[in-house]
């Protein structure tokens, strides 16, 4: 490799890492800034009619990236990965300006933000779908794991950096959450257009329109129905009996089944299903999906734990909890940043499988340890455990990506990168529905009794206390998630005004609500973390799946599968079997 080529690979890595960082920061920066955003546009998030705005602000960006990354990766394979990537940077820069200039308030202001976040997600999906393929094209096999490790860890760490950055900016001005993207995206766009070039294998092809339509519609219906299932319906704490939710789940499943049928019938499928005959590709993507669900659930639960319970119990004002929640979660980000590049370099030398599996097992162990931590924990213990969780995630991410990307032919790297991102992003969206549903189920068992007893102990009339205790647990959960103290609003001035001043003051004190829900919240947390443990262990097993050193008689190994599918093309892969040396 000459000096020009050697220099270009680091330029490609630097720019794509910046692109992934900005794309993933924006998947979480809104998460912790929602109280400031709702206040900025003049919406009360605790009113039942506004829950839909809250859900779409949470999931709209992640849903669009999950749906579009495969299509945009395929477009990169056909028309040039750099061309699609550069366009994504430009879209991201423009939409950041539009979002910051939201001219409306109330529901219209929320819809403006949701709609333009969807457009911004198209740009983010272009970056996500093609960055790993551009790096794989630019780097030789012996350095690919290290390069992908830096890129992937920057991407996943971005989702945690967004929590800290969002907390800092929300303290200042909610519009700065979007303005901060503008100079970075503009500089990255100019840099990308001036310096990146397509040096990967491109083949003319056609767009699989029926595959794209059935996949996008099916995945959107399924993920949206799962997310909306956490809202109450017909006297039930959740909406799983809602006919629209049932129709969404069934319709999404049918469309995805139809998508699978379409992909077996078209000459140039959007989702090359035959890639799943390669054990490393299948196992890596299954592990990525399970790890993403567990990691996404962890984000939500830790934010609720800090903003809604621990910080108010330790004297922090509700208005300041987003900032301090981001600061107290820094060990999670540090763990990712510490482990990611290291695991990429080590996987180049010793093979990726054991590092990917070990990372998920370490994450599972940290979830198990968090089960033993009381709701009002000692911060040093909490920080050490979330650091270990982040370190495990960093150990897993780079080897997992290297395993997936090195198991496919060069001309399918764009679509493989998109498929990998689809599993990862779909896991984040699924985590909203899965973990919130489990948490609401846990709260529904013990929260009404705790609310009723706590309110009547302060002199609230039995009828008023019972009415508050029967409100859907999801409202209480969102109050904790957003760092709100809802007691004053739930009881109203008439009830509070009739109580002795000392009782009214106790009810509206910043510590009353967190102390009241801490026990029921821990009940739900136990369910959530047990599921995360199971997902981590299953993901570790999937990471280890692969061809045995000697295949049974008549059984094809990975190389034979690839030769059968694509002919004897040079793949230049990172070895997907364990190396001979130890």
UniProtKB/TrEMBL annotation:
Decide whether keyword Plastid is in the record: no
> Looking at the UniProt record for this protein, which Gene Ontology cellular component terms does it annotate, in alphabetical order?
plasma membrane
- Establish whether keyword Lipoprotein is in the entry: no
Q: Where in the cell is it found?
A: Cell membrane
**SUPFAM superfamilies recorded for this chain?**
MFS general substrate transporter (SSF103473)
Keyword annotations of the record: Cell membrane, Membrane, Transmembrane, Transmembrane helix, Transport
Q: How does it sit in the membrane?
A: Multi-pass membrane protein
TM annotation in the entry: 12-38, 53-72, 84-101, 113-135, 147-170, 176-193, 213-231, 243-262, 274-305, 325-343, 355-373, 379-405, 426-444, 524-545
Q: Which GO terms describe its molecular function?
A: transmembrane transporter activity
In this protein, which residues make up the domain named Major facilitator superfamily (MFS) profile? 12-487
Under the heading Pfam families, the entry gives: MFS_1 (PF07690)
Q: What is its main location?
A: membrane
* PANTHER family (UniProt xref): BLR6921 PROTEIN, MAJOR FACILITATOR SUPERFAMILY MULTIDRUG TRANSPORTER MFSC
The protein here is known as MFS transporter
Organism name: Catellatospora coxensis
């Amino acid at each position: 490799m000459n000096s020009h080529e050697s220099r270009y690979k680091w330029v490609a890595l630097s720019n794509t890492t910046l692109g992934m960082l900005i794309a993933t920061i924006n998947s979480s920066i809104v998460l912790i800034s929602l109280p400031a955003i709702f206040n900025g546009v003049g919406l009360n998030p605790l009113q039942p009619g506004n829950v839909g705005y809250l859900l779409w602000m949470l999931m709209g960006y992640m849903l669009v990236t999950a749906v579009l990354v495969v299509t945009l990766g395929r477009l990169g394979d056909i028309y040039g990965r750099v061309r699609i990537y550069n366009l994504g940077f430009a879209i991201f820069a423009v939409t950041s300006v539009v979002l910051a200039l939201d001219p409306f308030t109330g529901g219209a202001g929320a819809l403006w933000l949701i709609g333009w976040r969807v457009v911004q997600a198209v740009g983010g999906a272009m970056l996500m779908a093609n960055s790993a393929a551009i790096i794989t094209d630019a780097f030789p096999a012996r350095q690919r794991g290290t390069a992908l490790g830096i890129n992937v860890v920057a991407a996943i760490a971005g989702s945690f950096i967004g929590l800290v950055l969002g907390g800092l900016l929300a303290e200042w001005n909610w519009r700065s959450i979007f303005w901060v993207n503008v100079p970075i995206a503009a500089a990255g766009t100019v840099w990308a257009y001036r310096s990146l070039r397509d040096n990967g294998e491109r083949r003319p092809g056609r767009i699989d329109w029926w595959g794209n339509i059935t996949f996008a519609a099916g995945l959107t219906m399924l993920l949206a129905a799962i997310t909306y299932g956490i809202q109450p319906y017909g006297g039930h704490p959740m909406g799983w009996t809602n006919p629209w939710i049932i129709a969404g789940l069934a319709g999404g499943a049918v469309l995805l089944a139809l998508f699978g049928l379409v992909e077996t019938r078209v000459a140039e499928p959007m989702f090359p299903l035959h890639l799943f005959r390669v054990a490393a590709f299948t196992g890596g993507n299954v592990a990525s999906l399970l790890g993403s669900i567990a990691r996404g659930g962890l984000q939500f639960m830790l934010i609720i734990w800090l903003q809604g319970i621990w910080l108010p119990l330790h004297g922090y004002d509700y208005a300041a909890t987003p900032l301090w929640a981001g600061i107290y979660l820094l060990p999670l980000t540090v763990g990712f940043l510490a482990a990611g590049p290291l695991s990429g370099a080590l996987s180049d030398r010793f093979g990726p499988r054991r590092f990917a599996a070990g990372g998920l097992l370490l994450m599972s162990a940290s979830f198990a340890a968090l089960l033993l931590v009381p709701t009002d924990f000692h911060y040093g213990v909490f920080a050490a455990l979330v650091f270990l969780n982040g370190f495990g995630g960093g150990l897993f991410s780079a080897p997992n990506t290297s395993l997936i990307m090195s198991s496919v032919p060069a001309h399918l790297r764009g679509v493989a990168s998109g498929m990998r991102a689809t599993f990862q992003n779909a896991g984040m969206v699924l985590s909203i529905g899965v973990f919130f549903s489990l948490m609401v189920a846990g709260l529904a068992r013990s929260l009404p009794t705790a609310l009723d007893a706590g309110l009547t102990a302060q002199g609230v009339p039995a009828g008023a206390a019972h009415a508050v205790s029967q409100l859907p647990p999801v409202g209480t959960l969102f109050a904790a998630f957003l760092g709100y103290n809802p007691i004053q609003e739930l009881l109203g001035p008439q009830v509070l005004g009739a109580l002795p001043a000392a009782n009214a003051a106790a009810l509206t004190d910043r510590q009353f609500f967190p102390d009241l829900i801490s026990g029921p919240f821990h009940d739900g947390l136990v369910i959530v973390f047990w599921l995360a443990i199971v997902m981590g262990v299953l993901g570790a097993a999937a990471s280890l799946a692969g061809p045995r050193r000697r295949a049974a008689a008549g059984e094809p190994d990975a190389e034979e599968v690839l030769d059968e599918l694509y002919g004897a093309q040079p793949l230049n892969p990172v070895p997907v079997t364990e190396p001979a040396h130890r």
